[in-house]
Amino acid sequence: MTTTSLGTWTGQPPITAGSGILSTDWLPGPSHGTHSPVVVSFTDFHSDSEEDWQQIAALGMELAESWPIMRGAVGLWLWGKHVELRGGSLSIWDSHADLRRFIRWPVHVAIMKNWRGRIRVRSASWDDERFVPPQAWLRAETHIRTPRDM
Description:
- This protein has helices spanning 50-64, 96-104, 106-115, 133-144; strands spanning 2-3, 9-10, 22-23, 27-28, 38-47, 73-81, 86-93, 119-128.
- By secondary structure, it is of the alpha+beta class.
- The chain has a single domain, classed as Alpha-Beta Plaits (2-Layer Sandwich), CATH 3.30.70.
- The radius of gyration is 15 Å and the shape is globular.
């Protein structure tokens, strides 16, 4: 992960070596560059089959294509831990209202309804007084590194 002259972040998160975690590069949203209080949202899906894992990962990448227009979105990393058939996102938002708007977005609702019962999803969110990408990632990584019930 690197910082630009404007203080914004690009690239990979600070993934712990040997953890088996893969990640996209930082995907900036319209509020990219903010450091003021933010809402951090972590999601973790676990599938029972390779085929489902591949499909949901592809859906995540499709959703990410809309990221630049998500009002209130600071940025996003998608992550995966293939050996455990797990993956998810770490998204940063200006406010709880912005996160709720995304959760209620009809495209997101349709995906969740379609996959209900086929995958197991956990989520967590927290408020940070100041957005510091390495700190947000390391907190999320503690969730990722905790094994899921298989």
